[in-house]
Amino acid sequence: MKIAMIGSGYVGLVSGACFADFGHDVVCIDKDPAKITALDAGVMPIFEPGLAELVSSNVRGGRLSFTTDLPSGIAGASAIFIAVGTPSRRGDGHADLSFVHAVARELGEHIGPSVVVVTKSTVPVGSGDEVERIIAAAKPGIQCAVASNPEFLREGAAIADFKRPDRIVIGTDEEWARGVMREVYRPLFLNRAPILFTSRRSAELIKYAANAFLATKITFINEMADLCEKVGADIQDVSRGIGLDGRIGGKFLHAGPGYGGSCFPKDTLALLKTAEDYDSPTRIVEAVVKVNESRKRAMGRKVIDAIGGAGAVRSKKVALLGLTFKPNTDDMRDAPSITIAQTLIDAGVEVSAYDPEGMALAAPMMPGVVMAKSAYDAAEGADAVVIVTEWDAFRALDLERIKGIARAAVLVDLRNVYDPADMREAGFAYVSIGRG
Fold first, then answer.
1. Which end of the chain is more exposed for a tag (fewer CB within 10 A), N or C?
2. 261 and 186 in one domain?
3. How far apart are CA 85 and CA 10, in angstroms?
4. Closest CA relative to residue 390, chosen from 324, 310, 334
């Protein structure tokens, strides 16, 4: 089967490469000539473990190709996926659907009959209706189904998530379109991946509801961590104690500096705006968004307290280890490190930082931060070392080396990577999350 993937960013490239690995003939289409040229040369626009190798092998196998020419790219395709960005619209938080609508207009000019147009971009409820209207206005009477197929990929584990999904959600009421989508995902039948067919609007809402719920779990456990610090409990014991309940589950119950990334921040905002538009307030999600934003600033203040408090931090230096919103990605979108660093700089603290993959993207977002060549380079002369992102490279730091090069043996662990007793034995003043 030929598949066209419009958009060669994170979702489009991972999905296209995985579909090609299943044996489909996939063309990835993008408006950016520089991106397509780079992909043809084997250079990935994002860091995702295993992606470069997956793309390379399928290009060599003749199953994956790249182009800027949409008409030739979609010619002969049975399924055309829309996987372009839907960022938060500046000023009001609504999802910006301009890229989706632009693709729909261009498809309306060139699409052939008996094609399923699949919205893989994260879009608000009702967006598929508009895509369908735009295409139908350009090609009245054409047999073309518009389906919703939201993605549930975790950055850093996207390939495994695509090939071994918890579920595949497909929103369409057209039986022939369901048949096409069954064929698209037929290679996953061997893995017994459950396919859930729903209405298009239900599929669109499933994506937002899932991300909002996960963001709620993160925010809930972060508030419990604050309470643990006040009452002398251990958040890791609490997380494990509630996570063993099958109704709750242990995932996303790890206390930290707040959520960030490409999905949770924009999707919770977009869900809020959709709920407002339909006069159906989502008070819990509203609270989650507010608490998460305030938490990032609170983490900056936590670091300030660890080096003497607001009145004694000028001329002091802090080393941030980890800048991306999570490990195994270079994604800096809404990363807690941005707010933490700015809070420190506003207080007069000198900030250095190191991240294994994110510094190129982080540098323009954090103009007051000195990017270091290594974790130890960042820690040189620091009054505190702060673990912001739990990269594996930071899980077994040479603590004696850090003590020898830092100005003070202070470690603020915002991911609870280390054991408090071990850190005390190593001679560190150790501050963690929710372990009062």
1. C
2. no
3. 9
4. 324
Confidence of residue 290 (pLDDT cuts 50, 70, 90): very high
Q: What is the DSSP string of 39-101?
A: HHTT--SS--TTHHHHHHHHHHTTSEEEES-HHHHHTT-SEEEE----PBPTTT--B--HHHH
CA dist., res. 191 & res. 317, Å (int): 51
Q: What is the pLDDT of residues 62-91, one digit of tens each?
A: 999 999 999 999 999 999 999 999 999 887
Closest CA to 202 of 249, 147, 241: 147
For residue 371, the surrounding DSSP H or E stretch is strand 369-371
How many Å apart are CA 134 and CA 109, to the nearest integer? Answer: 10
| Tokens linked to 98 | 């301009």
Together in a domain, 261 and 148: no
* Integer Cα distance of 295 and 148 in angstroms: 34
Residue-range definition of the domain harbouring residue 127: 2-198
Q: Report the catalytic residues.
A: 263
Residue 93 lies in a domain: yes
The residue assigned the tokens 């040369």 is 41
* Helix H or strand E segment including 364: helix 359-365
Class of residue 192 by CB neighbours under 10 A (exposed 0-12, middle 13-18, buried 19+): exposed
If one counts the domains in the chain, the total is 2
Q: Is residue 95 part of a domain?
A: yes
> Could you tell me if 163 and 83 lie in one domain?
yes
Nearest C-alpha neighbor of 340 from the set 290, 313, 302: 302
Residue type, 98: S
pLDDT, average across residues 393-413: 97
Classify residue 239: in a domain, yes or no.
Answer: yes
- DSSP assigned state of 189: G
Q: Do residues 149 and 283 both lie within one domain? A: no
Which positions ≥6 away from 290 have C-beta within 8 Å?
A: none
> In this structure, how many other beta carbons lie within 10 angstroms of the beta carbon of residue 205?
20
Same structural domain, 402 and 316: yes
Per-residue model confidence (pLDDT) at position 81: 98
What is the C-alpha end-to-end distance of the chain, expressed in Å?
57
pLDDT score at 310: 87
Kindly state whether residues 164 and 296 are assigned to the same domain.
Answer: no
Task: Output DSSP code: residue 233.
Answer: -
Which residue spans within 253-348 are E strands per DSSP?
317-321
